[in-house]
Amino acid sequence: SCGFFAVFGGLCGQRVTFKEDYKSYTPDLCMSKLESVLDLRTGKVQPAIDYQLTLDNTIKILAIHMRMRSNIPVVIMGETGCGKTRLIAFMCDIIKQSILSKFDEENVPDNVNNLITLRVHGGITSAMISDKIVEAEEQALVNKTIDEKFETIVFFDEANATSEIDLIREIMCNHTINV
Q: What's the first-to-final CA gap in the chain, in angstroms?
């Protein structure tokens, strides 16, 4: 499909080769690949010590990033506790660290957040979802004043647990919200 070729072409354009021996990748080499593709400031990002960056997670982050760049909605599925939320939090954290590394410590802007999470549950309403989108839009405006490339991600955690799934689909696929 067109989405595949957009992602594949984007990865090739970022010098990601599909003929490498990925089995020999260390966490440092994985981080180096992320710095290259995500356009992070080399050496300015310190991954969380409690997060083990693996080749599998690196590939997932690259796929998520390329889908977002291609404006393709991203749905992450997996068993409870497999690390979906932590993966997104890690990706957002390294991007935020890279963006903020251009500031002196005393000049780092306040209220910087590039991950807006809505913990979805059976009792969530369309108004609650709408409020979270408004919050994300406001945060995105703040982030864009810091750096034009500073994207804001909205993460619907456990989105399948609500009757408002049509609204979430509308937001993700149509980029609209009609409440």
A: 32
